[in-house]
Every structure is written in C-alpha cells, then in structure tokens.
Amino acid sequence: MLEVQDITFSYQKNGNQILEHVNLSVGPEERLGILAPSGYGKTTLLKIISGYISPDAGRILVDGEPLPQKGYCPVQMIFQHPEQAVNPRLRMREVLKEGDGISKELIEGLGIEEDWKNRFPQELSGGELQRFCIARALGKGTKYLLCDEITTMLDFITQGQIWNFLIEETKRRGIGMVIVSHSQPLLDHVCTRQIRLNENP
Ligand SMILES: Nc1ncnc2c1ncn2[C@@H]1O[C@H](COP(=O)(O)OP(=O)(O)OP(=O)(O)O)[C@@H](O)[C@H]1O
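A: This is the predicted complex of the input protein with adenosine-5'-triphosphate.
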C-alpha cells in the first residue's frame, strides 16, 4: 500500500500553502486518477510522493516504510515533458541503464526500436523519448508509478499504445498507479478510482 499522510507544503517559508493536509492511499492493484484545476498542486504532490521534494509536514509510506534515503526508490514518477527528464549528453542506451535492470521484454513491449538506443534525446520525437522514460521508470524495484500528464503532447495512436501497455504491465506486476490528467475521458478509461484534490478521498 502507498500511503500519503497529512501532507502540507509551500514553496516559500510562510508563503501560500500549495498543499494542506492531503491524505490518500493507493493499493498495488489500483490506478488512482487525480483531478484538480491548474495550479492546485498536482505536480507538486506527485514530486513529494516520489521523494523529489520533501513536504513541510506529513509522510509517505510504502508498505508501512518511509521512502529509502538512498538506493532505488520504489515510487517512480514520469513527467509531462520527457526532454526535461533525460540528460541531453547521454545516448538513450545509457539513459536506460539509469533504471533498475530494464528488461528486454519491457523495451520491446514499449515499441522501442534497437536503432533509437544509439541516439541522443534530441534525435528522438516526443513520443519515442517518452517511451524510454516509461521504460526507465519501470525497473525491477518499482512498486508504484506516478504519471503526470504523460501523454498530453502525443498523438492519439501513441497515447492509446502507451496506456494499453501501462495498464497491462502494471496489472501483471502488481504495480499501483497515480495518474494526473486534465482529460476526463482518459481518466475514465484508465483509472479504477478517481479523486479531486482538496476533497476527502
Ligand atoms: N518551483 C516552484 N517554486 C515556486 N512555486 C512553484 C514551483 N512550482 C510550482 N509552483 C507553484 O505551485 C502551484 C502548484 O503548481 P503545480 O505545478 O503543482 O500545479 P498543478 O496542479 O500540477 O498545475 P497544472 O495542472 O497547471 O500542471 C502553482 O501556483 C505554481 O505556480
């Protein structure tokens, strides 16, 4: 179980509180959709849940344990803009090595072509690059996957391929998901449960 307990956060000391006493939990079989208008702190919340930023108060537990201070994080996040999530100086084969033992099956399942691995990020399309970011986030140790508008900038065919793959892969491996999107049809299609931020789950 992924538990988000009483999270409070503001970017500036004594500034506007972006998140106030946020509580939610997600099981390994669930795909939880989060809805909220722009600026309500959805991206900020996902960054806290995946350990990129620390909350001012509250805690994140995975199976009753806090996120590890070092080593592989069982909660992985995929961002809206893949080009901002990869080192531009690394070839894609090296980017994949940043993950936790990325399998051949995963790479094939995502439709990543052998030749793409020799390229640099700027030599790939947004959809091709996002497939690498998804592969990197789905290493052996991943228990929960957080998706922040991950297909917003992609065409419908690519969106469909990516979501079908993600649903199958996470079901098979018992990986729980948290999905942020402004698209209600997408959330209706993908999620097993939905909540609105700032309302009780
Ligand atoms: N690094 C930062 N420093 C200061 N303020 C920030 C920072 N990042 C985001 N904010 C502010 O925090 C608030 C929440 O931003 P966040 O990106 O989490 O919202 P969001 O709900 O994901 O929005 P959107 O739906 O537009 O992506 C916004 O008012 C934003 O301007």
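The mean pLDDT is 95. The first strand starts at residue 2 and ends at 9.
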